[in-house]
Design goal:
The structure is a homodimer of 207-residue chains. Chain A is of the alpha/beta class and 207 residues long. Chain A has a 7-stranded mixed sheet. In chain A, strands 1-2 form a two-stranded antiparallel sheet. Chain A has 2 domains: 70 residues, Winged helix-like DNA-binding domain superfamily/Winged helix DNA-binding domain (Arc Repressor Mutant, subunit A, Orthogonal Bundle); 112 residues, Rossmann fold (3-Layer(aba) Sandwich). Chain A contains 9 helices and 9 strands. In chain A, strand 5 and strand 6 form a beta hairpin. The model of chain A has no long low-confidence stretch (mean pLDDT 94). Chains A and B meet through helix 1, helix 5 and helix 9 of A and helix 1, helix 5 and helix 9 of B. The complex binds nicotinamide-adenine-dinucleotide (2 copies). One nicotinamide-adenine-dinucleotide sits at the interface of chains B and A.
Chain lengths: 207, 207
């Protein structure tokens, strides 16, 4: 299968190829994509190869077909139902992000213990109280959960979700979750991006 | 200097060592940190070495000193002033995130063209209209900007910021910014995390 760095680069390629489609282009070359992202053309061609797309010498890749291949490789042409737990600052931002819906992520319900939030709708998604989480996750047969609760509640909430049948967690908290082997955890860590930025700014200041 | 993957791992180590301090521990070993994160102990020790910390055989690293060394290596013990541009869903979430302030990121002002937002305060930060951005950035002498505007406005806003003296941009949009060589851009891309998650869920379903 494809390496993680390859998979991580595909959304940036998709973004550029979709722009080419909007501009009415029929073909796009690996070199054009590489220049836009300051990558090596050979790297881009190797990455795109994992999606099964075949390019034509001198013309490049057919734009529509390339979009289809990337979306299908990422399974972004299929719908994945998810629940979101912790409808606070970050949770609300994610509920409002249309890009995810475009890529098949369908958040069907949110859960939060705050009495002021339970029973409301945020960006088209109904927020329920935490007591209803396990019943609703089971009834809906949802397998994916987005975790945006405060760190100190992350492990307990994750255990409840897994008991209710959740098999994959997109973890936005800064806690390393202990989960059984069959459960996938994808950690999204803003602080490591901020760490890299801080070090780069430090080097810049030292010059 | 340290490699990027090493820098990216340091915040997770810091999180564990800070928890050890709260539990009253005086020393912590590389192995304990490694086990918590499912990493190799030798990797953890190599990473920590870049911060200048020295461990004691059989006891490990002194907890208070290790926290100090990581914070100083990341420059998280210094204050960095920043402005945030685009006080929408994501911008508001970032303004409300106390973890950043703890690590020295001091957002001094936000800017947004929405008349309903300009003149308000969000989580203690004043939101100004976009017209005031360049003057205020210059007057405050801020060098770092957090970009959470819609993708189609990213490049124009980035050009205005750089003209006003900004030298580093934390880019949350999905657009590759074209900037002069002296400007640092750190891209934060939620869609690559979602790509990895989608592929892992696909493999899980296929089993
Ligand atoms: N805000 C950001 O920009 C940001 C950035 C990176 C990471 N995070 C992480 O995301 C998480 C949420 O951050 P936030 O800024 O949205 O915080 P927040 O306080 O705004 O939101 C947390 C929400 O979780 C709810 N909650 C509390 N206990 C709960 C429980 N036991 N089960 C379910 N929900 C519960 C609260 O009612 C609240 O609505 C934190 O773990 C934080 O570290 C936030
Ligand atoms: N919401 C998320 O979870 C999320 C996740 C990943 C990436 N992003 C990216 O972050 C950016 C913001 O997303 P959002 O969900 O907060 O959108 P949003 O529409 O909620 O917020 C955008 C804000 O930018 C302001 N704005 C519009 N034009 C502007 C301009 N020319 N200059 C300055 N501000 C301007 C708007 O008034 C609005 O307040 C987008 O580029 C999006 O792709 C968002």
């Amino acid at each position: 299968p494809a390496s993680l760095p390859t998979v991580k680069r595909l959304p940036s390629y998709l973004h550029i190829v979709e722009a080419a489609l909007r501009e009415g282009k029929e073909y796009i070359s690996g070199t054009v994509i590489a220049d836009e992202l300051e990558l090596e053309p050979i790297q881009v061609r190797k990455d795109l190869a994992v999606t099964g797309i075949v390019g034509t010498p001198r013309r490049g890749f057919p734009v529509r077909e390339l979009i289809e291949c990337i979306n299908s490789f990422l399974r972004w042409n299929q719908q994945t139902d998810a629940v979101l737990v912790g409808a606070g600052n970050l949770g609300t931002a994610l509920l409002g992000y249309g890009e995810f819906r475009k890529h098949g992520l369908n958040i069907v319900a949110a859960f939060d213990p705050d009495k002021k939030k339970a029973g409301t709708h945020m960006n088209g998604v109904q927020v329920h109280s935490l007591h209803q989480m396990q019943d609703r996750v089971q009834a809906l047969g949802v397998r994916l959960a987005i975790l945006t609760v405060p760190g100190e509640h992350a492990q307990v909430v994750s255990d409840l979700l897994i008991q209710a049948g959740i098999q994959a967690i997109w973890n936005f908290t800064n806690v390393k979750l202990k989960v059984p082997p069959h459960v996938i955890v994808q950690k999204e860590d803003l602080s490591s991006g901020y760490a890299v930025l801080s070090v780069k700014v430090g080097i810049q200041n030292a010059q």
